[in-house]
Amino acid sequence: MMKKPSNTSDINYNITLFEALTPVILLVILLAYNVNVYGDEAMSGSNQFTLLIGAAIATVIGLKKGIEFKSMINVVSLNLKSITGAILILLFVGALSGTWLISGIIPSMIYYGLKILHPSIFLPSCLVICAIISLATGSSWTTSATVGIALIGISKAIGIPTGMAAGAIISGAYFGDKLSPLSDTTNLAPAISGSDLFTHIKYLTLTTVPTIIITLVVFIIINFFVVSTGPTNNEVLINTISNTFNINPLVFIVPIIVIFMIFKKTPPLIALFIGTILGAVFAVIFQPEILKQISGSSTLTIKGAYVSILNAITVDTSIESGNPDLNDLFTSGGMKGMLNTIWLVICAMVFGGIMEAIGSLNKISNSLLELGKSTFSLFASTAGSCLVLNLTASDQYLSIVIPGKMFSKAYRDKNLAPENLSRTLEDTGTVTSVLIPWNTCGAYQSSVLGVSVFDYFIYAIFNWLSFFMTLFFAALNIKIKKLDSKIA
Questions:
Q1: Number of domains comprising the chain
Q2: How far apart are CA 59 and CA 75, in angstroms?
């Protein structure tokens, strides 16, 4: 992931808690009604405008408090600048999915997945595979954009609800995102709280390992009841894929290179760009028939290959397989398919920027801080602050940075080691971001996997269970480390 936000937590504005919460409450009501009216189509534009309505309400409050409109727009401008990397990553994920489709990479993943992954163990397999990939790369976004897309395709082919599959994928992806030393949030949380990376990771395992074990057990149980454990015949699907594409294990060279680059800390934009170009090259080498089909030509020409590849990168691409069940899998929106998500992220950051500019985020966080009189209430206030900032600022990084700066002194005053704060930030700020449709993480995962947040929310078990696990440990005073002693 891609940026470090600015922080205005030291600025105080003359705003009441009621005024600070008013835009949030009205926004949640409007979004709930909007989703009820539009359903899955809410992401196509109506949610975006609803976020702008929330920003307008916050702007009115700011103007009444004497805050200049220009100063509010300046904060919005800084927020939008901070998501440049996120927008480019979204565009390149769209491009990569296009070339990985026409090169046979994604169809090959589905092909071998149908042969290897039996429906009776599919959901726990998704969890474990994505946990391993994200732990190795440190990126939940890369995990979803590579193996995640293929696993969603397999779930459609074998009739497992995509919401369940997406929940398992996201649960595994965020397990690695939390614990990998290559993850930016795993580095950011201890840096903000005053701990060090490996102390933070070691302390984080105390809540994360039980959470992932519980999540795995739940998915095993769900899989047992939802999918028949008897033999299934996927031969028709497997044969259709092999008849449509040239299935060759050599195409896996491309995703292996991309994952290796991420592991070596190559910037995600560079890795995704190279993955896109390699996908195009492999399409020419392994899938000339697909390129001819897309270009509508009987022979493969340089112009036809160029048009087919550029169309796959930029706009909608659909490959006819002769099987209606697979045709939906063999489609890609390219860069164009990411525009609704980019639009949503921009509008969310406008709302978050205005809320930051009028002092609403600061007021809400300070109010939560005042609740932290006991040790448990301090943990609960931190968790609540992270969740509120994910809801309002729509940004995973702000949900770590602002509470991290605001609560660090309170933890020291209570003789609590900084690892307590860094762990709480990760257990609540990092993982809940993907549960909010208008948050950058929620918008990204929903767009890449093609599954709405509302469909995968309940099945993203690891993500919401992590929030309660850290509070459970705090409430029972389990493994709470003091500044002047070993872990309690």
A1: 1
A2: 12
